[in-house]
């Protein structure tokens, strides 16, 4: 077991096996010159129900959105593992971009994205510190409340 997988286990995190849609017209990530670019990750299903849908600030609370953001982060880790095999190859989390489906007047997007940043710091320590952008959007596909993508530096094999 890798160091990072042991850390995930210690944190009680099991990576989802259904985060990767192998029939999609796109891939979960692309690697160019040791930089991995992920596709957008949403919170996903809970018991086959989209639990985290709607606008943050009207349909969902900040705490619910933070829980969804954490699930996005877990799905991003699943994307990374699928693409590189060994999570110990992650040298640095470079950048996170989060899109929050926001109700009019909602302006706490950075607070919602803190859940992603906190998890990456717990998993990778200082190497999990990253640049970040937290954006408000009017709509997201499938009415997701949040979507995130990552840019990650990886070690050579």
Structural account:
With 157 residues, this protein is α+β, with helices and mostly antiparallel strands. The protein has one domain (3-13, 42-154): RutC-like (60s Ribosomal Protein L30, Chain: A, 2-Layer Sandwich). Helix content is 30%, strand content 25%. It contains three helices and seven strands, in the order αββββαβαββ. The strands form two sheets. The chain has a five-stranded mixed beta sheet, covered by helices on one side. Strand 3 (45-46) and strand 4 form a beta hairpin. Helix 2 (62-84) packs across helix 3. The radius of gyration is 15 Å and the shape is globular. It starts with a helix and ends with a strand. The relative contact order is 0.24.
């Amino acid at each position: 077991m890798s160091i990072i997988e042991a850390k995930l286990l210690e944190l009680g995190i099991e990576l989802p096996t259904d985060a990767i849609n192998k029939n999609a017209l796109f891939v979960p990530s692309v690697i160019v010159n040791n930089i991995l670019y992920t596709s957008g990750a949403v919170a996903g299903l809970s018991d086959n129900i989209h639990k985290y849908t709607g606008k943050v600030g009207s349909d969902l609370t900040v705490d619910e959105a933070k829980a969804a953001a954490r699930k996005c982060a877990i799905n991003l880790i699943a994307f990374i593992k699928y693409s590189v095999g060994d999570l110990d190859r992650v040298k640095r989390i470079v950048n996170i971009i989060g899109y929050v489906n926001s109700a009019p007047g909602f302006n706490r997007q950075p607070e919602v994205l803190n859940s992603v940043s906190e998890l990456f710091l717990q998993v990778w320590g200082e190497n999990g510190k990253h640049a970040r952008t937290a954006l408000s959007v009017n709509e997201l596909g499938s009415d997701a409340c949040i979507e995130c993508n990552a840019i990650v530096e990886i070690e050579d094999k």
